[in-house]
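Field log, afternoon session.

UNIT: design team B
ACTIVITY: writing a sequence onto a fixed backbone
BACKBONE:
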């Protein structure tokens, strides 16, 4: 009943140790290829395939290091020569390593094929026209609009209170001035998704200023009419003491 229990068991530690040592050397060597590919491709991660007479090698890399190196022979099962999961089977590793030099040769041929790739690419370009004058003119116009907006805000603050909005329609488009104290917080044209002629974030584009600046005068005139109406209403108020 106990026959065989005393038999010697052959240890495979030497094979496993050799397998692990070889896999580590492959990771280090293939890591050089991974770094070269990452630099060339201009990204932190990617993968590349290299064909040999005996199969296909796929190298996946991330942050300049090998994620995995897979060998897929023309016949037989694929082998992950380098993997983050588990070491390869020794027999499969032996088969793959017989083709490893061909893989490196395929990579080297690829690297040589891209030498001089940028030799005929021009490195001189046309001068870039400056928009400085246009921007300065845009800023000058916006500053004038801000002066007007602040003047309106000051009047609204004095009559209406600490903050609020004044809205009207100009050429069929809604114009809205929000004041905060005696300054304009924003002047928006076109509703909630419209263009901010004035805001705390920055000026609008020169194109939008060109499109809308012509209606600022009409907006101010409408505001003045609003003020005139208020003055007319106030003039009809009397206080005769009979309370």
């Amino acid at each position: 009943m106990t026959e065989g229990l005393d038999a010697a068991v052959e240890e495979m530690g030497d094979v496993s140790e050799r397998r692990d040592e070889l896999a580590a050397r492959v990771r280090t060597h293939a890591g050089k290829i991974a770094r070269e590919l990452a630099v060339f491709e201009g990204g932190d991660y990617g993968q590349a395939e290299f064909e040999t007479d005996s199969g296909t090698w796929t190298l996946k890399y991330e942050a300049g290091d090998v994620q995995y190196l897979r060998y897929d022979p023309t016949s037989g099962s694929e082998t992950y020569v380098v993997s983050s999961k588990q070491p390869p089977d020794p027999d499969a590793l032996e088969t793959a390593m017989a083709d490893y030099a061909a893989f490196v040769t395929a990579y080297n041929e690829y690297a040589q094929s891209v030498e001089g790739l940028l030799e005929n690419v021009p490195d001189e370009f046309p001068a870039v026209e400056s928009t400085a004058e246009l921007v300065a003119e845009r800023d000058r116009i916006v500053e004038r609009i801000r002066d007007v907006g602040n003047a309106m805000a000051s009047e609204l603050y004095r009559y209406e209170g600490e903050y609020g909005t004044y809205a009207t329609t100009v050429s069929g488009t809604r114009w809205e001035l929000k004041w905060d104290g005696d300054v304009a917080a924003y002047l928006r044209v076109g509703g909630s998704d419209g263009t901010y002629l004035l805001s705390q974030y920055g000026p609008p584009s020169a194109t939008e200023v060109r499109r809308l600046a012509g209606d600022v005068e009409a907006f101010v005139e409408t505001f003045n009419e609003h003020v005139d109406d208020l003055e007319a209403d106030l003039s009809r108020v009397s206080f005769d003491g009979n309370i």
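LOG NOTE: Helices lie at 13-41, 90-97, 100-113, 132-160, 206-212, 216-235.
NEXT ACTIVITY: expression trials, pending approval
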